[in-house]
Amino acid sequence: MGANHIIINMNGVYKGFVFTLLLIALVTLGAKDVPAAVGDDLKFRGTVQDVNGSRLNNSLINITIWEMSGTGPQLIGSNSTYSNESGGFNFTNVTGNVSWLYQVVVTYTNQTTGVVDYVGPSTPQFPYSAFVPPPLETNIDFYLRPAGTINITAINSTGDNISFWYQVKDIKLGYTIASNFGSSNYVQEKIIYVPRDRNYSIMVNANQSVPVSFEWNNFSATSDYDVDSLSKYNVTNHTLHKQFNCTDLPVQIYGYVNATGIDGWDDFAIVTYLLEPGSMVYLGAKFPYNMSFGPEIHNSSDSYNLTSGFYNITLPSSTEATNALLFAAAKNGSDYYGGFRNISLNSSQEINFTMYGLLGNETNITVQDAGNNSVDKNISTKKQAFNLVNATTNATLENVNAHMEIKVDYSNSSLYNCTEFTFMTDLNGENGTFYIPLINATGIKEINVYSMDYVPRRVGTRTADEIQANNNITMSAFIKDGGIDPNYPISKSNLKAFVYMSNSTCSIPYPQYISAGEDPCLIAGDVTMDMFNPLPAIIGGGKVDFSVKMPSTGIEVKYINVDFLASGPPDAKFDRAQTESTAGDLFSAALRFGSMGPTIYDYVLIGMPYTEGNTSQTGLDEAEVNMSIPLFYDENWNVIWNTDTDGINGTNLAGNHSHYETYYDEWETLMNGTTCTRTAITDASQINATHPCYIDTSRNLIWVRIPHFDGNSIRPAGGVITATPQNGGVTPGGGGGTAPEKMPSVSHRFDKIEPGAAVSMSINKTGLDFTQIQVEVKNRANDVRLTITKLATQPASVVHNVTGRVYQYVEIDRSDNINDTNIQTASIKFKVNNTWISGNNIDKNNVYLNRYANNQWNRLSTTMVSEDANYTYYSTVTPGFSVFVITGEAAAAQVCTPGAKQCVGDDLQECKSDGSAWETTETCQYGCDPTNFVCYSELQPVCTLDTKRCTGDNLEQCSSDGMQWTVSETCTYGCNSTTLTCKSAPEDYAWLLYLAVIVVIIVIIVGAVIAKKKL
Questions:
Q1: DSSP string, 663-697
Q2: 3-class DSSP state for residue 941?
Q3: Which of 128, 333, 467, 929 lies 20 to 30 A from 501 at CA?
């Protein structure tokens, strides 16, 4: 098989060079802005020690000199010397050139066994500028680690040694530590010395063979063993003898490309990528197209049947199996489809693809055509673009050197039948846009970006919809003059940097001093950032802690066991606007938590100052302080987890946000809260994952250990000691009485707000009952800050009283770069305490948010959305921001019991929920049941058969069907309702009247006669 059939483009897999640029940024971050003389020779001195600080004499220090070419760094010379009896060395005339790169390799060989026992760190090449900050003399203490040896050879089908290119990567570092890929020279054997505490991937591309790889992760083995039939490990001298069998083994891959509803394709092809150890896929490492062509195989082309979707292709492999990622790219009409499968090319096999739509825009994948080396094959597909944008200007970066790693998860066997893998791609002095083939069924799991001049950036999980809505990745510059945040500039001269040894006695908040002026832990620093040169700590190889401190506030961030080489420098974003407080607002930590950079350390210690309470100063009661983390944010500072509503279960946190999986138990401890210990920390084990908080009462600092920087806020909590009023109750400096209460307030900054993409801030502040604000703008607004403050009373600027009973006054203050006319919509969510509602006889449906604007109160349309045992929750929409007040209307007096029912004639009525009135719910066709308070379903009988009743003078009788009363008799003398009969005619008693009249007359006459006789 000819070599031209199987050469895979490995150019560009130079993450080491990208990291070189990244490390330049760290070096120049602290360098004085004083130019060095161009081409001055470099002076280079230092010592060689083991990890315990014991000096190593007769160690070889080799400085190799490199020049950058189109295929990566090329070796052009070297200087070497040996350390003396005390481990010291000194170079005085290393030739300097501003365009050259320099790499320092240090090894210690056991003079008795001839084995390399110790080796320095695996570093990339550094540019000349990294060594030239004045003075032009670099002093480095190398701390060598126990060494392992990797011995690489390759054979063909007859067992003969053959020449090859090679590439060795430190898997954790991610970049190449030894390579001759793309050079004009092949080797037949390569011996590489590496630190034993790492894992490595080894790739070999033998002449006229396909690249093959092997992952080595067992330098910790305690006995000799055979790795495979050709390779073995010798534990005595810690040597891996890896021999690759590069015997040609072409394999046929065939199967179908299928998609729901698609009966045929306009075009499709299979693109084959090399799958490196760790499931890494460099987008430039593609197999040539049409590998079936040529007499070595069967002198015919790969076949693709557009009607059936069947394909049959041949791929090169070897006895040392090659792993590959297959991407099927297909087109049907104007639609593009794709699918992924990972395979081991150890035999011919059937591989079928389930196809999905692709994200992005139409483009080509260009592959070398094995059938015609003079032309390339362009395969039509779609790729999704991602833009690296400047955090300050929101403009796409230009002239970028960056390395991107994009992790996707296609491991669902019922959907994708692939694996979780990571795309790698580079930008080399280009526009800051890169392109990735992505199916539209899911998004990305994680993106890591490493770039010169910018903080390493991690982007969390994004769905396909989220990617299409926003494909920008915001990059923040390293801390320089002017600061991270242009609104809150922090000069380098206001920050101090420290590099400490990392061990049990040094990795604590304050390492112990042996004597005054002597610190066995401090390696470098204790200087302002404008004077700090971290290069010695970066390439010295020792385990180090890196600390950044703001002396003006006392805030300190200490990264424990930093691995600078793994992903560049850490970034603590100091931002005066981001604060958290205890009761009484005692804390002004002014530290913005979360660089969103990849993990580069074991954990972080954060020191935050506090005010101690006493009789003359209101402040923290140090007797007991509790620390917790209540909020977690995404990379855009939107709340993604709130312990008040989402709980404190670490497993649930990790299940919803995979970035927290590694340390889910530690996050759970921090969410749940922990009482800060007061015992002085003298050993790193005292502040641990289980007890992550320490209060230093002598320095008034609280220290918290967190697993890594990721968007979160820390909530300290403790009692408050209030100062005793002096001078007869008059507070010093005041006009009498006690000091005014500091009202709860929160602030949030949005880097930008795009039209059509609403942004929100969640509020979780004790005493402040606004819970969320969401804003959508008409035109883009940059660097927007909202500050929400509870007001104790109606402010003096408000001259009108509001209608209703007042619950809470709140003011929303906005920065000048957004005004009310640019607000498309703004919604506010708030809550009201149920105790206040019931205590003030408030109708829950008559709670309102009112806004003061145009010199009057404006009642906003307010909706009750939910309630729990403690609060009732509401939402509203506002046309702008100003002063607001939450009010409630008293419930009306009750005239009935809410929910009670009654019948009024044929009307069924129910008492309103507030008890204010009866309202008819139904007029009954067949009458209302006064017993059960329901409408009858049919006409009801009105009487019982043969019963009677009196209605006036009528005697009525119930009809035979009971449906009506009929008049049986009209009574002349009335109806007797007792006997239910007509009354009889009355008797004639007129004679009695006559008799009575006669008697009266007789009595009158007799009386008159008697009276006359007496006269």
A1: THHHHHHHHH-EEPB-S---SGGGS-SSS-EEEET
A2: coil
A3: 128
**Would you say the C-alpha torsion 989, 993, 994, 996 has a positive or negative sign?**
positive
Q: Taking residues 965-978, what's their average pLDDT?
A: 84
Helix (H, G, I), strand (E, B) or coil at 415: coil
Torsion over CA of 488, 489, 493 and 495, rounded to 10 degrees? 40
CB 454 within 8 A of CB 477: yes
Alpha helices in 556-692 (DSSP H): 564-567, 643-646, 650-656, 664-672
Given a contact cutoff of 8 angstroms between Cβ atoms, the answer to whether 137 and 124 are in contact is no
CB count in 10 Å sphere of residue 470: 13
Q: What is the dihedral of CA 122, 127, 128, 129, to 10 degrees?
A: -110
Which residues are paired to 798 by β-bridges? none
What is the torsional sign of CA 68, 72, 76, 77? Answer: positive
Best CA proximity match to 290, nearest among 316, 310, 264 = 316
Tokens representing 232 are: 């073995």
Identity of the residue numbered 132: V
Among candidate residues 758, 722, 753, the one with its CA nearest the CA of residue 738: 722
3-state secondary structure of 88: strand
Cβ 809 vs Cβ 794: under 8 Å: yes
Cis peptide before 135 (omega within 30 of 0): yes
Q: Which residues contact 698 (CB under 8 A, 6 or more apart)?
A: none
Cα angle 404-407-410, degrees, rounded to a multiple of 5: 150
The Cα–Cα gap between 270 and 609 comes to 60
442 SS3 class: coil
- Note the pLDDT tens digit of each residue in 365-424: 999 887 777 788 899 999 999 999 987 788 999 988 888 899 999 998 888 999 999 999
Q: From CA 649, how far away is CA 651, in angstroms rounded?
A: 6
Percent over 70 (pLDDT), the chain: 78
Quick one: residue 395, left, alpha or beta (phi over 0 = left, psi -120 to 50 = alpha)? beta
Rounded CA gap, 481 and 16, in Å? 28
Other beta carbons less than 10 A from residue 528's beta carbon: 16
Nearest to 741 by CA among 756, 728, 722, 754: 722
